[in-house]
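Subject: design request, 164 residues
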């Protein structure tokens, strides 16, 4: 099967990229193997929160995020002379927050709404080859697709990076 865009990786970046590309009219295949629920959190600064709002990925950061109103910088080096601790307060520059702390599982749920308009393959990518201006992708379950654009959102042990 031929797609405009193939996205490899089922985390926050991969799900957001697949949704936004599909909403903009591209044919998208998203390789996103199932994994355990992610109970970690992500502290995202306001430019990222603003992007998510404007892109329609989230509707209200207050609904499931905690505002980051203060940021403390601590010199954790073992040097003899260390920098003094500094505390920054968003109120000092008349903004509500520097950003928000979100539960990753809540962001993933938000990014997955509304109904997805792209093909999801819940399998690991086995091989990626570049041929004649297209990317040929085969997966562990035997799926084989072709795409004009390839997006690697598959983390530090990236199959995309290793293949290309």
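Subject: RE: design request

Done. Sequence follows.
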């Amino acid at each position: 099967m031929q797609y405009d865009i193939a996205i490899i990786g089922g985390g926050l970046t991969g799900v957001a990229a697949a949704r936004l590309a599909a909403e903009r009219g591209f044919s998208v295949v998203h390789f996103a193997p199932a994994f355990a629920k992610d109970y970690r959190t992500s502290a995202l600064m306001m430019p990222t929160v603003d992007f998510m709002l404007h892109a329609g990925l989230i509707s209200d950061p207050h609904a499931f995020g905690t505002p980051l109103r203060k940021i403390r910088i601590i010199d954790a080096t073992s040097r003899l002379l260390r920098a003094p601790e500094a505390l920054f307060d968003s109120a000092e520059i008349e903004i509500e927050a520097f950003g928000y702390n979100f539960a990753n599982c809540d962001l993933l749920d938000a990014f997955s709404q509304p109904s997805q308009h792209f093909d999801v393959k819940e399998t690991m990518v086995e091989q990626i080859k570049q041929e004649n201006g297209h990317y040929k992708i085969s997966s562990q379950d035997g799926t084989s697709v072709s795409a004009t654009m390839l997006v690697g959102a598959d983390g530090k042990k990236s199959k995309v990076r290793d293949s290309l």
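The first strand starts at residue 2 and ends at 8.
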